[in-house]
Amino acid sequence: MRQSQVTYWCREIINSHAPKGGFYIDATMGNGYDTLMLCRLAGESGRVLAFDIQEKALLLTDRLLTEHGVRSRAKLILDGHEHMNLYAEKELADVICFNFGYLPGGDHRIATSPASSVEAIRQSLDILKHGGLISLCIYSGGDTGFEEKESILGFLKELPARKYTVIVNEYYNRQNCPPMPVFIFKK
Q1: Neighbours of 43 (CB within 10 A)
Q2: What number is the average pLDDT over the span 138-165?
Q3: What are residue 99's DSSP bridge partners?
Q4: Number of H helices, E strands in the chain
Q5: What's the mean pLDDT in 116-138?
Q6: Which DSSP state fits 2?
Q7: pTM for the whole thing?
Q8: How far apart are CA 26 and CA 50, in angstroms?
Q9: 148, 155 contact by CB (below 8 A)
Q10: How far apart are the first and last CA of the chain?
């Protein structure tokens, strides 16, 4: 993987921060690569919940996890990330990760939306343990990408600094709406 990719940096931060054997959530499983990383972090004693609204994403992720021998560590859920509070209790997760946008290689008309994404982040803040991390890969562009990015950043800007540290990064010299890695640390 190229070190300049947003997913590389998000995974590096997650790996440096997450306790081994914890409880993790992949809020947007897509092709399953973040779910796989989280399953490796989980080891035999941890667990992973992974969400997506597309059955194709679940099938691809199931195949990937099975190929790597870690399928038993994850529960794959065919539901939107804005419903994660139905599956996880408050202050339970060590890490929650998001990749906003559409399924890579999938139908670009099916994508995350501003309202559901902000709601999912709101729920994540309650589900996250103190000392935990939320990783966000924000992709803008497309039909709703700019609106989603602005909605998410507007919501994050209002989070109380005494409870959360929000770090927003950007590719400063890239053209064409580069992705934005964002990290939320719960104090």
Answers
A1: 13
A2: 85
A3: 137
A4: 5, 7
A5: 95
A6: -
A7: 0.90
A8: 5
A9: no
A10: 31
